[in-house]
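TODO from last week: model Olfactory receptor 56A4.
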Amino acid sequence: MGANAILLFTIRLEASLHEPMYYLLSLLSVLDIVLCLTVIPKVLAIFWFDLRSIGFSTCFLQMFIMNSFLPMESCTFMVMAYDRYVAICHPLRYPSIITDQFITRAAIFVVARNGLLTMPIPILSSRLNYCAGNIIKNCICTNMSVSKLSCDNITLNKLYQFVTGWTLLGSDLILIFLSYSFILKTVLRIKAEGAMAKALGTCGSHFILILFFSTVLLVLVITNLARKKIPPDVPILLNILHHLIPPALNPIVYGVRTKEIKQGILKLLRRF
């Protein structure tokens, strides 16, 4: 979370970073910070101070943020992939396509699409009749962990989360794959010396983060499908790590691989 905050301050204070790609990176950092603040405090309270109780409203708020902000991250990666596609495949048109207005509209789209489509998940869960126990077998309020405590039929809850989750994440990953396919096709045609390495270098950080995000998600899905063959604590641990590791890696990977950000951070540190 601290690394994301430093990245935000660096982009805010360094004029040379006031460009569309870095605005998208700022949006990604904000999403990461909110996710960390949603998950980390409660998990630490449970393990450090044994404070296991959570309010009804707080639980469903946590559920909403986790279900909506992860697709928001995926959608942000998709917009960033489009930004790189335009920059490499249509460089002359980049200034006229990727404008500040485009970034503003993209940010509104990221928040609105994922927030509205995932909002029914906690609403459906909160309307269930909880007549049994109130102990969640998890460190965080996931939809299934909470819904399983209900005496009602939770088929609709499962179906909506499954369809919505795979529709949002699946469509983003398909568009990201298409963008990078066109980028690779264009890069392979570049004959100027060093141009290919430079083009691939601009996409390297972005691709690493997308690959890690997708890999962790895939491992989590496979683990949940094979729940009967593995200890029950493993899916819970992976679920928590999926909310914590990508937000921690995003600013580190960009900070290490992006020269402009490294220089901006060094300038910021010299001021203090």
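Done. The chain has one domain: 2-53+66-126+155-271.
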